[in-house]
Amino acid sequence: MESKLFMRAPAISSERERELLVFIRESNIIISDLSLLNLAFTHRSYANETSELVDNNERLEFLGDSVLGMCVADWLFNNLPAKAEGDFSKIKSVVVSEDSLAMIARQLHVDRYLLIGKGEENTGGREKKALLADCMEALFAACYLDSGFEAAKSFIMRYLEQQIRAVLDDDYHRDYKTSLQEYMQKRWRKVPSYTLVKKTGPEHDFTFFVEVDVNGRVFGPASGANKKQAEQMAAKLAYDQLVKTSSD
To answer: CATH topology for 176-247?
Structure first.
């Protein structure tokens, strides 16, 4: 079946129609063109393997990425007047990330509705974060094309606002290594030095301990589930103490 936008979607059986209507009801997406919705669930692997002449959801994904960015930027601009542009960028990068979108996709059971090829199915495609996140962007685009920007914004922010709130509550996963390096370069024209002090625990579940040297002053050790995380925690420890000291 071909949508009004001349994109070829897979044919919709009576059973598939019932499935799509369940998704509409449970997700609260505003869309009337079931063909467009079905296309949003159509992965390249399915389009390549089916005997039908159909398109995949990649063009929708491209558009949905921009619609998503606009909706999140609009919300941030209107709801966080005290935040600066740099804060907006950091918050937005986390909220629209693959991890964030895949989390929402799982919440909506998107994996149940995906149309994927046998090869992709056999390699766990329904659980792949990238595939789930891409499908969410395609769904955003389908909603936008069918019902307009306000409808898309309503659907997107129904789920993304909770992600924004979570990011704000967790200091939006600030990149403390970058912040500490920028602070050091500005103040001393030097960069921090990280040292792995030790790692403990069983091989499948190590805890890493890292110290950071900031212009001769050592902070830590701080721990993390991997070396990168431990370095971030050490950087946070140093950054928090240095900034607080310099501002007192």
So the answer is: Double Stranded RNA Binding Domain (3.30.160)
